[in-house]
Specification:
By secondary structure, this protein is mainly α. The protein has 13 helices and 2 strands.
């Protein structure tokens, strides 16, 4: 693995760059081929207050009088240099506009991910280790319950109970630490269900392995067996699941911001859709694609370092399905581009 790992890293970085560029091009083409030409309609609408000089500057900047491929090349060239364009609504550069609100969204998504992990491991451990009379079967039903309740319903219940009834935070200033906690809790509950399902399945699988039976025969308690032997192998697939749910976290954060009245990417997207500010929309979509691809790239690069059983595929016939070692069933998930084989 050591010899092939640098090659694997370079290959995955190259793939990530290609995916980001394709996502940007696809977003540009979708916006450009929209019927009705929203950009021209916005510039030519007298209610928007654009002077003829401003219209000429915008048309020249975005090459709107040129063919679509020329516009795409100019847009892609600016994107590669970090220039996300100029907002048609505010006439300000898009990158600083996103920078002002992105921190709020990313902090909310990060807090939600942390809470989701805590919830998932608590539910997973309880569903595996607690006796039936203590609610083990009830905990196993929690993931399905969490998934069946829509995010906006959870948000409204949290607002009514913790804000309106208990007055623990104010909806007027929900960006305080307490307000952020409850907004993150709203986002974390459905996300934790997917993680808990994976943890429960892997704990059930790992606890039937020979090494777990031997550990029990030596008198290890359930808690010691969980911490010393089951936690790590059961947690490895969670790395992959986290990478896969990043998009859900960002999308859920946008909706949660609207429910809690937070100023983030959600409000920026809403204003941009209302005013047909396509440069901002394209920048937000591209930024989301970059975050999703980068998180998946990090998961792919970290996974073989965490699990020594993983072997990197060498050539064109790269396997993406885990290959079980003899006597050991495969885990339910593995990052793309990786396969697991018997060590040694």
């Amino acid at each position: 693995m050591r010899n092939s790992y640098p090659v694997f890293v370079l290959r995955r970085i190259g793939q990530a760059v290609v995916v980001i560029l394709l996502a940007y091009i696809a977003t540009f083409l979708v916006i450009s081929v929209l019927p009705g030409d929203p950009v021209s309609g916005m510039l030519n609408n007298p209610e928007n207050g654009f002077s003829p000089e401003q219209v000429d500057q915008i048309v020249s900047y975005y090459k709107l009088d040129q063919p679509v491929l020329v516009q795409l090349w100019e847009s892609l060239s600016r994107f590669l240099t970090g220039d996300l364009g100029v907002s048609l609504r505010t006439n300000l550069p898009v990158a600083p506009m996103i920078g002002q609100v992105a921190a709020s969204t990313f902090s909310l998504a990060g807090a939600a991910l942390g809470l989701a992990l805590v919830l998932a491991f608590a539910v997973g451990y309880g569903a595996h280790a607690l006796p039936r009379w203590a609610g083990r079967d009830l905990l196993r039903a929690f993931p399905s319950l969490f998934l069946s309740v829509p995010n906006y319903v959870v948000g409204l219940l949290v607002l009514i109970f913790f804000s309106f009834q208990l007055h623990l935070f104010s909806v007027i200033d929900s960006e305080t630490p307490v307000g952020t906690f409850f907004a993150a809790l709203t986002l974390a509950i459905p996300v934790s269900a997917q993680l808990a399902e994976v943890i429960i399945a892997n704990l059930d699988h790992e606890s039937t392995q020979e090494y777990a039976t031997v550990a029990r025969s030596r008198g290890l308690t359930q808690a010691s067996l969980f911490v010393r032997h089951l936690l790590k192998p059961a947690s490895l697939p969670v790395v992959t699941v986290i990478a896969l749910i990043v998009g859900e976290l960002l999308g859920g954060a946008v909706l949660t911001e609207q429910i809690f009245g937070r100023n983030g990417l959600g409000s920026l997207v809403q204003q941009s859709v209302t005013t047909q500010d396509t440069p901002v929309l394209q920048a937000v979509v591209s930024l989301s694609a970059v975050v999703f691809v980068v998180v998946n790239l990090v998961a792919d690069l970290v996974y073989p370092l965490l699990d020594p059983r993983v072997r990197l595929t060498e050539t064109r016939a790269r396997a993406t399905v885990p290959v079980p070692a003899p006597g050991r069933a495969p885990g339910p998930f593995a990052p793309s581009g990786l396969s697991t084989r018997k060590a040694g």
